[in-house]
Amino acid sequence: MADVLVAAEHRRGSLRDVTYEAITAGRELADERGGDLHVAVVGGDVDGFAEDLDREGVDAIHTVADGEEFDHNAYQTAVSTLADRLDAGSVVAPNSVNGLDYVPALAEDLGVPVVTDAVGIEYDDGLTVTREMYGSKVETTVDVAGDRFVLTVRGGEWAPAEGVGDATVESADVDIPESGARVTGFEEVGGGDVDIADADVLVSVGRGIEEEENLELVEDLADALGATLSASRPIVDNGWLPKNRQVGQSGKVVTPDVYVAIGISGAVQHVAGMKGSDTIITINTDPNAPIFDIADYGIVGDLFDVVPELIDEFA
Q1: What is the pTM of this model?
Q2: Orientation angle between helical segments 215-225 and 303-314, nearest 10 degrees
Q3: Whole-Å CA distances, 138 to 50, 173, 298
Q4: What pLDDT score does 307 carry?
Q5: What is the separation, in whole angstroms, between the first and last Cα of the chain?
Q6: For 258-291, how does the pLDDT look when each residue is reduced to its tens digit (9 = 90+)?
Q7: DSSP code of 155?
């Protein structure tokens, strides 16, 4: 039972970034257990997904053709069947809305413990999982009994798997039983045309913007940089931007190449959602704001002075 099975996740025809991060975590676990790394992809363009999933460290990819989008019943059945068929000791899935939907039922199927939202893992004759609690103010470790378990991993905590691998690809024949509820389509709501989790460059605005009408200034900077606009929770709570633009524990976890934080102090709940960004730039009048502790570059200044200068520079 040393082998590890990673459950891939996709949306609207594209694999989600957290899938590649889960592969890295799965490879790490497989190395520590001395096993192979398998990846399962369920639904959608499974053949196309298999090509993208063939990254360094992946030994085998198993495709299960069933529907186009996420379906609880299909994922639970397919991943459970493959885990048993492969005799995998560990199943790793993204700690996402979809992952948290079916993973508890998957663990119940397999009769194994489940640990969610891992930010670190170690295996030495047993699994030890690091988790964060109370808005990332407290770090805890969980020792998992037994040598078989299900694990979800937080996005942005592992580097995405890269390179081109040499994995075998197998179309798995899994009997997905009909249930009382099946997903027949997928439709974004509430400005869902933008997924900040997929953005390479994010310009994020916080309560330092003061008034809703001032958002236009930050939008102009985002346009000049070719960036996507996001926000901290106070902006969303005020109804100035839709929920799908919120970064943080109660919003989305993002890992862009560049994250520009404007008028954001750096509360732990917000930092938990963006600390995986490659380069963090912040603009804030308070030199003691916590956001400076994780920033690669910081400007201590009034955003209403600094942002127009940046727009002139990049427009």
Answers
A1: 0.74
A2: 30
A3: 38, 44, 26
A4: 95
A5: 56
A6: 999 999 999 988 998 898 899 999 999 999 999 9
A7: T
